[in-house]
Design goal:
Layout: H1 2-30, H2 34-112, E1 116-126, E2 134-137, E3 150-153, E4 156-164, E5 169-173, E6 180-185, E7 191-195, H3 198-201, E8 206-212, E9 222-225, E10 237-246, E11 252-259, E12 268-275
Antiparallel strand pairs: 1-2, 1-12, 2-5, 3-4, 3-12, 4-5, 6-7, 6-9, 7-8, 8-11, 9-10, 10-11
Length: 279
Amino acid sequence: MRRFTRTGLFVGFCAAALAVVGLCIYGLASDASPAPLERGVRLLVTPFQRAFTALGDWFDERAAYVTDFEALKAENAALKAELAQARESVREAALLIDENARLRELLDMRARHEEYDLAAASVIGTETGGWGYGYILDLGTDDGVAAGQCVIVDEGMVGVISKAGDTWSTLRCVTATEMRAGVIVTRTRETAVMCGSYEYMKMGRMELTYLPAETKARVGDTIETSGSGGELPRGMVIGTIEQLRYAEDGMTCGGVIKPVCDLTQLSRVFIVRSFTLED
């Protein structure tokens, strides 16, 4: 079929060419007026002229399309580069804002706790055990951080440093099972012990033990560190009493302590690298 089509086009072209040549020979031989001859030639040539003109227009359109497409590609690449630069600028601005907020908080905390040598740290990950159990901080031994140091926020104590590397450290929250500290009921000045337990850790709470059986403590009372042993600062709020109950022996009282804040939402903390012991 394709071969037949090509043959037909060739034959048509040859016939048109012969007709033009014949008309020219006829005009020369007969001395006829050129007007009829010219009209005949134009009649035969015009379709070809139109075809070539259309073909030229088609190529012009394709060339313009390619040119426009390349221009769009270049514009798209330029816009992507501008967008990437804008995102980087936004990221750098966010980091600066965060750093400024961190420094302001540190200055404010230092003003309120002149007896503490504080370092502001950011949470950069979680320790095995899940949120509320432990966090990875962005400060380490290069910043004067060491295991056993107290970690606080505006509201009070949230845990201690359990281990430290050169540029990182691990915060063990007050709800962890291995936590244990001497505490005082702020209002009544009664001593007790705060300790972690698996049961209470799952609820984000700590256990209060060894309160005297005749305790005057009440639900809602504040619990603070006693400073016994010199490992933790004295008077650091650690939580509030959420429940009270008598021990099975009837000689002591215990309860449940609610931490000073939601430990699952920590983002910035302060590490107490050293502190002055009160008399």
